[in-house]
Amino acid sequence: MALQIAVVGGGAAGFFAATACAEAHPNAQVTLLEAGRRCLSKVAISGGGRCNVTHACFEPGRLVTHYPRGGRALRGAFSRFQPQDTVRWFSDRGVRLKTEADGRMFPTTDDSATIVDCLQRSARRARVDVRTGAAVRTLDCRDRFHIGLKSGVLVADRVILATGSSPKGHSLARALGHHIEPPVPSLFTFNVHEADLQRLAGVSVSTALVQMPLSKGKALEQTGPLLITHWGFSGPAVLKLSAWGARYLHDSSYRTTLRVNWLPDHTEASLRQALLHGKTANPKRSVATPPAALAQAMPRRLWSYLLARADVAPQTQWAQLSKGGLHRLIQELMRGTFAVDGKGTFKEEFVTCGGVKLSEVAFKTMESRCCPGLYFAGEILDIDGITGGFNFQSAWTTGWLAGQAAGAPPQSPKKPSCSVSSDALSDT
Q1: Which residues sit opposite 258 in a β-bridge?
Q2: Which of 75, 296, 304, 318 has the highest CB neighbour number within 10 Å of its CB?
Q3: Tens digits of residue pLDDT in 117-141
């Protein structure tokens, strides 16, 4: 009798797991259950509609450093399926990826529909039974899994949970004995209620260093492009910082201090030298014009704003700039401080940290250590990466591993049952 495999969740990880299982084990019957009317909706809108499939980082040891949570657990998993394998998987199915200057990889069509169509087509070819509008109400495990649907009960030998950050998926995992690390947002922008800053909305710098103080004199920092918005700060530098500081920021009600170094390629000594050189070269020019050595990295509107913050009048001639004014300007350029008062909504914000506790999952197969026959893939796990294709890569990797393992022939004639109380199922 063919193994019955149920995959719960029709997102990136769910489709990848279902297809991997059906392709590796063609005698298994794989059914994918999606609560909504459409599958892969987040894939369709990701990357501004282009879908940032993965990142061109092909060394597992380096790859795991882009995951604030889950990097250690993923190290072995990436040795079995990593970005090179993702590129090959899509290429084998007629989808070519391209690498942009920052390492992000997109389909050459620049259209996320290319990825959605590829995943759906691959699932059909592998004979995955995809059911939409099939919300799982209960999940029970005795000798086999009993999946409660509105239409009745589906019985399966193995189950892969790939429900993303959905509270429903967490409650199903909890009912089968798992602990859930509390989910909180990751990848978000910072609100800074400063009118003069907000008037610079749209101004950006290609490289800035942002720091956020923690307790006991420690601090988090990230470097990258920084964008000023009409509500505060965004851009890769802030998004990466928000990911690494997600729990600290949540516990702090998203109130903290942000320190910005607008010119991280300079030391304080080299910056002082550049300013003094400008002072010597053009003594009668007003400070409203930045020195030539800084002009390319410093937008004029931002320079004027930082002069005001340093209490330096823009009509001041460089020859008249006092030592105190020079010192204050250097401070603003290298360690200006801003009060963060809340988080904004990143247009692609659907990443959370939190989920199934990683120590309860065997990452070689993605099988539960609490309930044999139960597997996990994707964001339901306490794994999250920074922006740049890393979250999709963890979905592809964990989905592929779960799919490969879930369809394998049973090692014993009967699988131990999972103990589930009625109280545990009360919120499902």
Answers
A1: 338
A2: 318
A3: 999 999 999 999 999 999 999 999 9
